[in-house]
Structures are given as structure tokens and as C-alpha cells.
Design brief:
The structure holds two protein chains of two kinds. By secondary structure, chain A is mostly helical. Chain A is built from nine helices and no strands. In chain A, helix 1 packs antiparallel against helix 2. The longest helix of chain A is centred in the N-terminal third of the chain and has 20 residues. Chain B is α+β, with helices and mostly antiparallel strands. Chain B has two domains: 74 residues, no CATH class; 279 residues, no CATH class. Helices cover 32% and strands 28% of the residues of chain B. The N and C termini of chain B lie far apart (68 Å). In chain B, 43% of the residues are buried. Classes of the chains: A mainly alpha, B alpha+beta. At the A-B interface, helix 1, helix 2, helix 6, helix 7 and helix 9 of A face helix 1, helix 2, helix 3, strand 7 and helix 7 of B.
Chain lengths: 193, 381
């Protein structure tokens, strides 16, 4: 951490506005943080684990503050915009993400149950499927996984996912159904395995 | 088979700890550059090797050598209403200056099982000069201050436990680590040109949001809207009550403290105290001391949250009646019931619920105002 005077915030990014049209003023970021930090954190923690999420969730808001000129209210709300930034930061840690799924896939069911106690009440019957589920998620393409997990972990609607990733609405639907199909078939195949 | 539900169950994680939330907020406030995970771990975890002597010095330096914070009642006690109306008069006659200067230390109270005492942890310190004129720069300093035992009794228990410089404590159902080590200060200056740019952005944002509110975050009152409430006590009361949310009128003292942290005219500050004077249930606890040992007049509103009974307190300087801080003090706990983090729990309900091991009088949340007022002296000048 630096102790001395730093470059003033408005001069940090190369792309900061002197005069921006519909962008977010700095003053709203404290509120945005209070409203969205938890859900952004849990989305990132779901994909990268808690250790990494401690940092990346905070980064999401610092990056958002610096790139507030890229926010365009006519293209969607603040929430999908933040999830989009979070998703791009997650993408920089793809190896950690894969490692996390692999680790979850390796866990024996009883270990899994213990470490997630309280969250898995509806899961007990199917816990032996967890390794397969983790492998299936790891095997998805990045684009499919982004769509699937923005919905499953971030609770974003199709429209919000389209806004977060900057892709057409129809693409969200096709990616999602492909991802779900892959996951489902991984879960259903060879039920003795 | 619902694979979405299974994915949530597989990948779902508990909410962040208070200190992670506080660190993120500090970084956002300081516009701090992203720090690597390795650095962060070093800051939170690896500082265990702070010498015990340093830790003692830090603890004593920050909690002050003053007498223990025990409650004493004045000979001729004023009612809460009398105190608040006096505070209103004093506020109304306090002149404004070139800079609004506030210096605040926010922290959470944690119970330490080994040795059975309380500490202030996740201590976030903000020291800022906001210029009244757009032609003067603003200065914003912040840092994480190390954790310290709460009272003299806590300090004694801490010494008896071997004067540890790190602690493991419960937060949101998880064990987190706290360290006595303070971090270095971050400093951000905002030049007049940058401030003008911000004002333009805010104005455009406001204009746009007036047309399309659904795509905008909830609006903060502008300076003009805040000041208008000085002449409209009902609107001011409605605003503060709304900010108090589920806490209701008993929580207004804490909310008012936060409201007074922003720059405002003497008239608006006086209006806030007058609103508080009319709130039923606010009572005076008389003369006492704050957790730094400063003499304080204490006002309290009683509230219940999750089976825990608290006093939401506003502390005033006994001479100037300037706020010295706010705190949540445990009156009696819910019997040690811990609240497990559950997926999807909104942030508002996920903090400060644990009172396990805490005795009556424990401070579960604290905002200490080291400075609050107008000054003509610039930072460093």
C-alpha cells in the first residue's frame, strides 16, 4: 500500500470522461457497493472460491468506479453491468476456476456434505452426482459457462445476462439450453459410475 | 432433476465476512489499485509476527490511558429532550468554515473466546476535508487501524491471555482473523477541476434518472435537497426514518450521527437535533465516557434485533454538544444463538447478529468521531 500522495482518481484510467453523457457519478458508488457487494461476492466465490473472491469482488467495484464512463443506462441497469465486470475479472483466473471445479469433483460425498453443511439439505439424495456435476461445469466452453453461472449463481434474467455479456438476447437462450443439456447428460449418463 | 439448483448447491458460498466487506469498501473509497491475492493474504494473515511490545503500544495508544468507561450519573440530570434541544441551539450558532473536516473510526465488536473479552476489529479509519468552495481541493485519507481491546477490563483480560496480537473471532458464522497491526494511510486529493467534472456527471445522471429511474441506483439527496430539509422538519424526519429502515425510531440516533457526518449548514444540523428531541423513547444515560476515554453525554434508544436487545447510542461532547460518535451496545443477548449464513440472505440482515459469549455492555458496532466540524485550516496546512 502506498503512503504518499497518489495520482488523483479521475486521472487514473486512460478512458475517463471529462464530460460524459449518461454515466455514473462517483458519489453513487458507496451505495452501489452496499447494495451489490454481497451478490457479486457470492457469484465470484462460487466460481473461484472464497480466497480469490475476497479480492476480486472488491476489484469489481474499483474497476467499475474507474470505468464508470462505460456504463450506459440505455443499454441496461447497473446490476448486469457490475456482473459483466465481475465476469471479465473471473475470466482472468480461468486456471483457478478449473482447479476449483476439479477439487470439488474430487471430494468424496461425505467431505462435501461436511464442508457445505446447512446448504445441502435438498442435495443429500444426489450427493454422489457432485463430482460429475463439477466435471461437467469445468468442461463447458467459457461462453456457455458464463451464461449458465450468471443465471444460477447471480440470479440474472436472460435479458440481464445479455446486457452483462454484451451479447444478443437470443444467444443467451441458445447458450443456456446447450449448457443445461450438457450438464444434464453428464449427470444422467452411467448412473453406476 | 433440477440441475440449476444442484449447481447452486455445489458452488454456493457463504456471504463475505465483515472485514472483507470493510476492506472492499475502503479500497473503493480510496480508489485503491487492485491488490494481488498474495498481498492481501499477507496483510490479513501474515502479520502474525508483530512483536507483542508493538501490539501493547498500539492498543494503549488507541484506547487511551483514560479512566474506564463506566457509567456515572450527573447530579442534576437533563432529560434527553433538554440535551438535544441544547445541542440544536449550539449547532445553530456554530459558524461554517472553509473545509468540513471529519475523522471517523468505524469498527465491529468481536468476542474473543480465549480469555473471554471484547475487541474492536475491522477498524476502518477515514479522515477527510471537504472544501466548501469548488475552488479548493478535497482531501481523503483512509486506512485500516489494528484491532484493540474494548474497555480497561477487556485490556486486562487480553493481557492475562498473553497479549495476543492476532485473534480468531466469529463473524457471520465464520471464524475470521483480526490483527493489532495498523496499515499505512492512503491519501487521495481531488482537484477543483476533478470536482467540477464530478458535479457535471452528477447533474447529467440526475437529469437522466428523472426520465428513467428504473435504470438508476436510488438517488442520494443533493446538497440543496438536504438543506431544504432544514426548513421542513417533517420531511427530515421522514428521510431519517426511511434511512433507519427496520430499526425504527430507536435507531434514529445512529442514523442521525451518520447524516451529520456530511457537510451541512448550522440550520440543518440544528434541525436534526430538534427532530431527535421529539422522538419518543430516546432517553439520556447521563455523563459517561466514550471508548477512547473522552467525557461524553450519552443518549440511547432501545431496540431488539434477532432476539438481541441493544441500545443505539449517540454520544455528545458535554461542553460543545458536537457528536463524538454512535455505538450499538448489547443490553442482553439472545442466549448465544448463532445465525448461520444462508444463501440469498440480504446484506442488511447478515451483519452484527452474533452475540455469542458477549456480556451486557459489549459494544457490537462503533463509530468514533475524532473530529467533526468546520475549519479554515486545510489538510497539512
Amino acid at each position: 500500500m502506498r503512503a504518499g500522495p497518489r495520482t488523483p482518481p479521475s486521472a487514473v484510467g486512460p478512458d475517463l470522461p471529462q464530460d460524459a453523457g449518461s454515466h455514473l457519478p462517483q458519489a453513487v458508488f458507496a451505495d452501489l457497493y452496499d447494495q451489490h457487494f454481497h451478490e457479486i461476492y457470492r457469484y465470484i466465490a462460487g466460481r473461484l472460491g472464497r480466497d480469490v473472491a475476497d479480492d476480486i469482488a472488491a476489484d469489481t467495484f474499483v474497476v467499475a468506479l474507474r470505468k464508470r464512463n462505460t456504463f450506459d443506462a440505455s443499454r441496461g441497469g447497473v446490476r448486469p453491468w457490475l456482473f459483466g465486470i465481475a465476469t471479465r475479472l473471473v475470466a482472468e483466473h480461468r486456471r483457478k476456476e478449473t482447479r476449483r471445479y476439479r477439487a470439488l469433483g474430487r471430494l468424496r460425498p461425505d467431505e462435501v456434505t461436511e464442508s457445505h453443511e446447512g446448504q445441502v439439505v435438498d442435495w443429500v439424495a444426489a450427493e454422489s452426482l457432485r463430482p460429475r456435476l463439477a466435471r461437467a461445469i469445468a468442461a463447458l466452453s467459457r461462453g456457455d459457462r458464463d451464461v449458465l453461472l450468471l443465471g444460477a449463481l447471480g440470479d440474472l434474467s436472460h435479458e440481464e445476462i445479455a446486457q452483462a455479456l454484451g451479447i444478443p438476447y437470443g444467444t443467451v437462450g441458445s447458450r443456456l439450453s446447450r449448457a443445461r443439456k450438457k450438464v444434464r447428460s453428464a449427470l444422467e449418463e452411467d448412473s453406476h459410475g | 432433476m433440477d440441475e440449476i439448483r444442484m449447481i447452486r448447491s455445489l458452488l454456493g458460498e457463504a456471504p463475505p465476512s465483515d472485514e472483507v466487506v470493510a476492506e472492499g469498501r475502503r479500497r473503493l473509497a480510496a480508489h485503491a489499485p487492485a491488490r494481488s491475492a498474495r498481498t492481501r493474504r499477507r496483510l490479513w494473515g501474515g502479520l502474525a509476527l508483530v512483536g507483542a511490545a508493538t501490539a501493547v503500544a498500539v492498543a494503549i495508544g488507541l484506547t487511551g490511558g483514560g479512566p474506564p468507561a463506566t457509567r456515572r450519573t450527573e447530579v442534576r440530570p437533563l432529560t434527553a429532550r433538554q440535551i438535544l434541544l441544547t445541542a440544536a441551539d449550539k449547532a445553530a450558532s456554530t459558524p461554517v468554515g472553509r473545509y468540513w473536516h471529519t475523522h471517523v473510526i468505524s469498527s465491529e465488536g468481536y468476542h474473543v473466546d480465549r480469555g473471554d473479552y471484547m475487541i474492536f476489529g475491522a477498524r476502518h479509519e477515514i479522515d477527510q476535508w471537504i472544501a466548501r468552495s469548488d475552488k479548493d481541493p478535497d482531501v481523503f485519507r483512509s486506512r485500516f487501524a489494528g484491532a484493540v481491546p474494548q474497555t480497561a477490563a477487556d485490556r486486562a483480560a487480553w493481557k492475562k491471555a498473553g497479549s495476543p496480537s492476532t485473534w480468531r473471532v466469529l463473524s457471520n458464522g465464520q471464524t475470521i482473523r483480526q490483527s493489532a497491526r495498523s496499515h499505512a494511510w492512503d491519501l487521495v486529493r481531488m482537484t477543483p477541476a476533478q470536482k467540477r467534472g464530478e458535479r457535471r456527471l452528477e447533474a447529467k445522471m440526475a437529469a437522466r434518472c428523472a426520465k428513467k429511474p428504473q435504470a438508476c441506483p436510488p438517488a442520494q439527496p443533493t446538497d440543496a435537497q438536504r438543506e431544504a430539509m432544514a426548513r421542513d422538519p417533517e420531511a427530515l424526519k421522514r428521510y431519517l426514518l426511511k434511512a433507519a429502515g427496520g430499526g425504527g425510531s430507536s435507531y434514529l440516533l445512529s442514523v442521525a450521527g451518520r447524516f451529520l457526518l456530511d457537510p451541512s449548514s448550522p440550520q440543518l444540523r440544528a434541525a436534526v437535533f430538534r427532530v431527535l428531541a421529539d422522538v419518543p423513547g430516546v432517553r439520556s444515560l447521563g455523563a459517561s465516557r466514550d471508548s477512547l476515554g473522552r467525557p461524553a453525554t450519552v443518549l440511547a434508544g432501545r431496540m431488539t434485533q434477532n432476539g438481541n436487545v441493544y441500545d443505539s447510542e449517540l454520544l455528545l461532547d458535554p461542553v460543545t454538544y458536537v457528536p463524538l460518535g454512535t455505538q450499538m451496545v448489547l443490553v442482553h443477548g439472545n442466549g448465544g444463538r448463532t445465525v448461520p449464513p444462508s444463501p440469498g440472505m440480504p446484506p442488511a440482515q447478515s451483519g452484527g447478529l452474533e452475540t455469542k459469549g458477549m456480556k451486557p455492555g459489549a459494544i457490537t458496532h462503533s463509530e468514533i468521531y475524532l473530529t467533526m466540524g468546520w475549519t479554515n485550516t486545510a489538510y497539512g496546512g
